[in-house]
Amino acid sequence: MVREITFNNSIINDNSSCYVIAEIGNNHQGNVNNAKKLIEAAKSSGASAVKFQRRDNKELFTTEMFESPYVGVQSFAPTYGEHRNKLELSDNDFEEIFNYSKKIGIDFFVTPFDLKSADFLKELELESYKIASGDLTNFPLIEKVANFQKPMIISTGASDFYEVEKTLNFAKNINPNIILLQCTSIYPAKPITINLNVITSFRKEFPETVVGYSGHDSGISIPIAAYSLGARVIEKHFTLDRSQKGTDHQFSLTPTLLKNLVDELENVKLSFGDGKKKLLSEEKLARFKMGKKIIASKKLSKGTVITIDDLLFKSPGDGVPPSELDKVLGKTITKDYSFEDNIKLEDLR
Hints:
This protein is an alpha/beta fold. Helices cover 33% and strands 17% of the residues. It folds into two domains: 12-272, Aldolase class I (TIM Barrel), CATH 3.20.20; 282-347, Antifreeze-like/N-acetylneuraminic acid synthase C-terminal domain (Type Iii Antifreeze Protein Isoform Hplc 12, Alpha-Beta Complex), CATH 3.90.1210.10. It has twelve helices and twelve strands. It has an eight-stranded parallel beta sheet with strand order 5-4-3-10-9-8-7-6. A two-stranded antiparallel ribbon has the order 1-2. Helix 7 (139-146) runs parallel beside helix 8 and helix 10 (221-228) packs parallel to helix 11 (255-272). The protein is elongated.
């Protein structure tokens, strides 16, 4: 039973490096030049992919929600719908950033939040898609995107296991190429709410599905732990400046933090090893300097029967180790020993 998927030409499995997604979302603030700067910074930081969000807000919200007041320090307009519209890129903008991503060599994909947005993204001929946590039970959207027959990521925030299992089975009946992300839909999410052990549960219950982590925590330690638990896709929100206006910037990774995350994830992969305990050649000096050997505690004459009082255990470790003490005690020495001479097994009978 193989847990593996090809996602944007990357093979992701239990033995692969982590596929790191810089979730730009709407941190571009509706400006295509900001979006391109974020793409370039994500590429320079070592991310595998950038991800954006696409909404047709009239399709997405009821009239009441669209026209509801939205005021505060993070607001870009007086109503929620107008606020959301301020943060959207145009059709031409999406085409431009898609081509720009291809030009500089970083994977690009998008989360559609409504059916109209999904149709638009299909026309762009994207190679992959994501379903947001809020649409985990939106089967019409999932069905449409799954029928594109491109690899999909499904995020699982604000749901229970029954809903996740039902959605995964529904989607896989249409399209088997699914990645499942553990997620907590709190912005930002405190460590106590994150429940990384769900990654282990997902891996156990869905043994053919690649599992990952979509993090709304503000640092890099939790995604590193997620990789150690078996998450092979990590998604983190990404910004150029955490102080910028907008609700996502405060818990997004900056370019420096994203690069640190990518580097540390690769270090963790290297540190897994092959599971076989063995003495490494690089350890031999430390073994010599810090290891112990059995030596004479005083001058010993030929014919002495060795007792514990005749011995000391000191570094360097270039002699008989103390673990071989049972081969020394009670034996008769066949030569004279000076103080701190190495006790040798061939001198005993």
